[in-house]
Amino acid sequence: MMQWGRACVALLSGLLALWLGLPSARAQTVVLVPKPGVPQTDVAQLSAEQTLAEALSMQGMAVVDDTVVRRVLAAREPCDTDQCALKLMAAVGADLRAAIVVWRDEQGLPAKIHVTLADAQGHSYEGDANLQHGDVRSATTVALLDARAFQLLGPGPWLRVLGTPDAAQVYLDGELVGALPYRATIRSGRYRLAVRAPGYTGSEQQIDVPAVGDRKLVITVSLAPPPIESPVVGDPTHPASALSAGASLSSPTRPIVGPVVLGGVGGALILGDLILAAMVHDGSCYQRAADGACATRTELNVPSTLVWGGLGVAALGGGVLWYWLGAPETTPAVALRFGPGSLWLRGGF
């Protein structure tokens, strides 16, 4: 009668949940398959198995009691095959089986945790984590989360793209599918994988996703910043090519400083000569006597005026000829620039 009562209660509860639209789900039952032949001195393996059982329980899974598992396995050979694991799942009514292995390095020290989850259909989901400072508990949790992520995605194949920078965009055959770190199921076949990010040189490669065998494809991409272009020396439009006073230019240029100085001297001589000639009034009284009579009259010194004027004309003409007939300077000695796009002065003596 009690069994019929429980059955009726369960039926009514299910009908009520269906009528109200409430979710009706049960926790997955998982059996932890111990690694056969592990001695009691292997503290790392035993700690990893215990941590895995606790982590599975914390994720809402119903873990089969260890005593039940060992009682079932007592009548069997060491359970290290898929057939044995499937029989164990059927015997304890589990939906999943979990196994954990501590991998060791060449010195025999624990180095890596490997977790495997498998369902009754034969689909396997694996996760790995490196041991940091011998912390078995943290590595076991990370490896389990890795395996659970693949389990939630469903049967593979899977594509996992890791690398830098974070949030770089991932493209498959030209279509944006996600960002780094990227993980998703993918059909077997050949794809064109591209990873791009603003300010970085993009990466593109061809990948082949196998239909059988290892169906988890892991790609690691590290995008590099674009190379810094060297400034063009002497280019006034390039901000990095601003030159201070005294800097030299590599491009040929005509001499300009020398001709300008020589022409300036000539112009000054001519201008000064004209001013002096204009100030002298030929025949005017330069000095008067006591009675008021003109004792000395001014006279224009024509030879001196012509000499100074001629020197000025020669200097001015020499500056012009120096500029037009002078050979281009490969490395001018003088170059001046005040800010980008402003005044330039360059040339040589």
How would you describe what is shown here?
The chain is an alpha+beta fold. The chain has three domains: 128 residues, 3-Layer(aba) Sandwich (Rossmann fold); 71 residues, Carboxypeptidase-like, regulatory domain (Immunoglobulin-like, Sandwich), CATH 2.60.40.1120; 109 residues, no CATH class. It is 34% helix and 26% strand. It is built from seven helices and 16 strands. The strands form five sheets. Strands 2-1-3-4-5 form a five-stranded mixed β-sheet, sandwiched between helices. Strands 8-7-10-11 form a four-stranded antiparallel β-sheet, with no helix packed on it. The N terminus is likely disordered.
Kindly state the percentage of residues in helix. 25-40%
Strand runs, count: 16
Strand order of the largest sheet: 2-1-3-4-5
Distance between the ends: 120 Å
Taken together, the total number of domains comes to: 3
State the low-pLDDT regions, or none: 1-25, 239-251
Annotated CATH architecture of the largest domain = 3-Layer(aba) Sandwich
Radius of gyration: 47 Å
Mean pLDDT: 77
What is the CATH class name of the largest domain?
A: Alpha Beta
Main β sheet profile: 5 strands, mixed
SSE string, helices as H and strands as E = HEHEHHEEEHEEEEEEEHEEHEE
